[in-house]
TrEMBL record:
Residues 1-137 form the Flavodoxin-like fold domain. The keyword Oxidoreductase applies. GO terms for cellular component: cytosol. Pfam families: Flavodoxin_2. This is Flavodoxin family protein. It comes from Rhizobium lusitanum.
């Protein structure tokens, strides 16, 4: 299976970078073909310019500035997101990826005024996230990243697509042992992905 891994950890020596490496290694060991889309390393521009917004609905003109990313998305059969959670949301570079690449004509089309997914070829979805907050605080805040993955993105591909959601909460008080356990969990889940 072709798996697109969206990675948005900016620091190469971080635990997030270790999660990224583990995710890639585990998916490859499971026999998947991995397209590693490291947004920071690729210097992805997350800004939806005024011009981009003016032509937002004009497919295929709306894809010209991000054509290579659109092609990668259209070729994938599964998507895995590896990212930190900042202020109960995705980092701007990842949010910008969704705003600039998941465009009308690419991720959806309007048919008789109703939205129809154009990402039905994506059969699986995964997320490997790190939170500074503990699980209770994330719950009280409504845990928007979890809802985006398990509801919004899933609905944009296939409403009943299998989702693997892995989160290491309370990174502010994490230990070597907690990080090691989470890396092992990521390894096991991605090998079964």
């Amino acid at each position: 299976m072709k798996v697109l891994v969206l990675h948005s950890h900016p620091v190469e020596e971080s635990f997030g970078a270790a999660l990224h490496r583990q995710t890639i290694e585990s998916l490859k060991r499971a026999g998947h073909e991995v397209d590693d889309c490291n947004l920071y390393a690729e210097d992805f521009d997350p800004v939806l310019s005024r011009h981009d917004r003016v032509i937002y609905h004009d497919y295929p003109d709306n894809t010209e500035a991000v054509k290579s990313y659109v092609e990668r998305l259209q070729r994938t059969e599964a998507l895995v997101i590896v990212t930190p959670v900042w202020n109960f949301g995705f980092p701007a570079i990842l949010k910008g990826y969704f705003d600039r690449v998941w465009l009308p004509g690419v991720s959806f089309e309007l048919v008789d005024g109703k939205v129809r997914s154009k990402l039905q070829h994506i059969r699986k979805l995964g997320a490997v996230l790190t939170y500074g907050a503990d699980p209770f605080r994330a719950f009280v805040a409504g845990n928007p990243p979890k809802k985006i993955v398990k509801r919004v993105l899933r609905a944009q591909i296939k409403p009943f697509a299998p989702v693997v959601f892995l989160a290491h909460y309370d990174m502010n008080r994490s230990t070597e042992a907690s990080r090691g356990r989470f890396l092992l969990k990521v390894d096991q889940q991605m090998q079964r992905f």
